[in-house]
C-alpha cells in the first residue's frame, strides 16, 4: 500500500474535476498537524483521495475538517480482541473508524481465511466509503461483503422517528481480468457525505426507492440490527464477511453486460 | 417442525384473505401426487402456506402448479459436500431449491455454529420467500443473512441486457421478546411471484428505486456475483451467513420505533 500511495501524486496528471480545496499531500499534512502519525495520516488521506477520484466527494478531503471537529484521539489504536480462524472481533478503542477498517483489512490480507471469516468491529465510526475497503480485499482475490452503522438518519417511509443510519452495504468480487466489481450502496436517498458536500439537507435524508422506499428501509433496519447483534455494542460498528472464491464469474458477466457500466467501474 | 406443521390447519380458524384456490392440506396432497415424499410435500406446503399468511401470494400455493411444470425429480436429495465448523458447501443435486434450503436450515439448527458459519449452496433453485428460512433460524436464536439467485430478469436502469435475478436479500435478527425482525427484500420493482400472480408483467421487471434504481441494480449485481463466486457454479445458488449474536438489540429498537411497523412484522 505504501508504494501505491506514494505513486499516486506522480501518476495523476490531471486533477479530478471535483477535487476539493486540498489535495492528498495537503490532507496528510493537516492530519499530521492534528496529531495523527505518518501511517495513519497517510491511510486517511489515501481514503479521501480515492473518494475524490470516485466522484464521491462527500467522503473526500472535506472530511479532514470534519475529523478535526470529531475530536477523536489521534493516538488511539484499534484492538483485535478475538482472533479465531473464521471469526474476529475488533474494538475501535477510540480510534477513528477509518483506521479500524484500515487495520481490519490489513489483517485479512496478512492472514486470509482458509475459506471464510466474519469480522465484527465494535466502536467503529466513521467508516467512509465502504467500497474502498472491499475493493482492496477483492484486488487481492477475496470476496468481501461489508456494512457499517452510523447516526440514526433514516425513518420509516410513512413517518416516525429516525431509526437507522444510512447503513451502506458493499459487496466486492475479484476478477481474473484485474477489474473487480464493487457495489457500494447506502440505503439513503443521499449520504451524509452529500449533506456535508451541500448537495442535500439532513432533513431530506430518507430511505431511497420512492414508492418502494420500504425496501431500502427494511434493508437499513436489517443491517442496523445485524451489526448491533454481532458487535454486541450500543455504538456504531461494522461487520465484514470475507471469503475465498471458488469461481471467477466477473469476466463472463462483463461480456454478458456488453459494455454496460458495472458497479465500481471507473 | 412436524408438530408445527401439523398444528397449523387446526389453529387457523379463518382463511387468510388472499388465500389461493388450494389450502395447505390440498397443496400437500397435490405435491404427494407429483411424487414428493410426505416430509418434502409437507415442507413445501408449509412454505407456501407461510407465504400466503404473509400476504406474499406470489410465493404461495400457486407455486404448486408451477412446480409441476418445472419437472424437478421429486426424489432427488440435496447433498452437503463440505462440512467444516465455519463453512459448508451444499449441492442441490437436482432437488428443488426449497428442499435444499429446508435441509440447510435443519442442519444449522441441528448443529449451530460456535460463532459463525457461511453456507454456499450450489444448484439451489427455486428458493421462494427467503424470510421464511431466516425467520426459522432467528426464532431459534441465530442471526441469519441469506441471498439467492434466479433467472436473469433485471438489467441496468439505463437499458441493456437482463443481467441479474431479482436476488433477494433477507436478514433476520432474533429477539428475547420472541419477535425477530426479518427483512426480506428483492431488488426488483416486483417479484417473479408477482408476475405469476398476475400483478406485474415480466417486461416491467426492473431494479426498484426510481431515480435511485442504480442502487438496487448495484446490489443485485453484487449479490449475483457473490453467489456465483462462492458456489462455484454457473447455475442458481444461495449463500447463507449464520451467526450467534452477542447482543439482543431488537427489544430496545422496537421501543425506539414507537409502534412503527418493522420488517417481517405480521
Explain what you see.
Chain A folds into two domains: about 1-75, Orthogonal Bundle (Hypothetical Oxidoreductase Yiak, Chain: A, domain 1); about 75-265, Ribosomal Protein S8, Chain: A, domain 1 (2-Layer Sandwich). Chain A is built from nine helices and seven strands, in the order H-H-H-H-E-E-H-E-H-E-E-E-H-H-E-H. Chain A has helices at about 1-10, 25-35, 40-55, 65-70, 95-110, 130-140, 190-195, 215-230, 250-255, and strands at about 80-85, 85-90, 115-120, 145-150, 170-175, 180-185, 240-245. Chain A has a seven-stranded mixed sheet, with helices on both faces. In chain A, helix 2 runs antiparallel to helix 3 and helix 5 runs parallel beside helix 6 (about 130-140). Chain A starts with a helix and ends in a 9-residue tail after the last helix.
